Amino acid sequence: MLPINHHLIAKKGRKIQDIKYVYSHSQALAQCQDYLEIRELKPLFTLSTSDAVKLIAEKDDSAAIGTFRSARLYDMNILDKNIQDTDNNETRFIILSKNCALKSENNKTSILFGTYKDNPGELYNILGFFATNNINLTKIESRPSKERLGKYIFFLDFEGHKDDEVLKEILDKIKTKTYFMKILGSYPLLQNEH
């Protein structure tokens, strides 16, 4: 988890009162929504915050939400600092590898899955496998599956390694209760995650 600070960036010579449009990645725009609404700035989406900064180089009435580094990289000015709506704005970054992390003394595993139906108790039945085996869940998150309204993908983080015998059994049970289940990986817990 890394702290993320967003800044309003524009061409040199531009002032906040010159700005009507703000470009950035959807996540950055969402994290600065209050700031944009108060100033009546129209948000426009780009693929990344650095793309936004690059894009505004030719626009006099536009700014971007980005980082100090991108402002320096594209020789832009920062019009306003730390414009995110909350002071504790953080983003979780993950290092991906084709090789599995070695099992350590303290591990965490991440999975995602989709349930067959959107019925009461569907998620409860799956989470029950962890509760009855005394496995600590550290994160539960849902996202729309984009297949149809009311269908969700669930992300779970829990303590333990996917190769632990009890977790192998739980993961096998989850496979029978879901239309898909993917193990994203097992990895050592960071010291501050205990």
Q: Strand pairing plus helix content: what structural class?
A: alpha+beta
- Indicate the percent of residues in helices: 25-40%
CATH homologous superfamily assignment of the largest domain: Periplasmic binding protein-like II
Q: What overall form do the CA principal axes indicate?
A: elongated
CATH topology call of the largest domain = D-Maltodextrin-Binding Protein, domain 2
Residue runs with pLDDT of under 50 for 5 or more positions: none
Beta percentage is 25-35%
Q: What average pLDDT do the residues reach?
A: 90
Intertermini distance: 14 Å
Secondary-structure element order, N to C:
EEEHHEHEHEEEHEEHE
- The DSSP helix count reads 6
The structural domain count equals 2
What would you say this structure looks like, in words?
The protein is α+β, with helices and mostly antiparallel strands and 194 residues long. The protein folds into two domains: 2-91, D-Maltodextrin-Binding Protein, domain 2 (3-Layer(aba) Sandwich); 107-193, ACT domain (Alpha-Beta Plaits, 2-Layer Sandwich). The chain has six helices and eleven strands. Strand 9 and strand 10 form a beta hairpin. The longest helix has 13 residues, at 165-177. The mean pLDDT is 90.
Q: Top keywords for this entry?
A:
11 strands; Alpha-Beta Plaits; five-stranded mixed β-sheet; alpha+beta; 25% helix; D-Maltodextrin-Binding Protein, domain 2; 2 domains; 194 residues
Topology at a glance:
Elements: E1 2-3, E2 7-10, E3 21-24, H1 26-31, H2 33-38, E4 42-45, H3 49-55, E5 62-66, H4 68-73, E6 77-80, E7 90-91, E8 107-115, H5 122-132, E9 137-144, E10 152-159, H6 165-177, E11 178-188
Parallel strand pairs: 3-4, 3-5
Antiparallel strand pairs: 1-7, 2-5, 2-6, 8-10, 8-11, 9-10
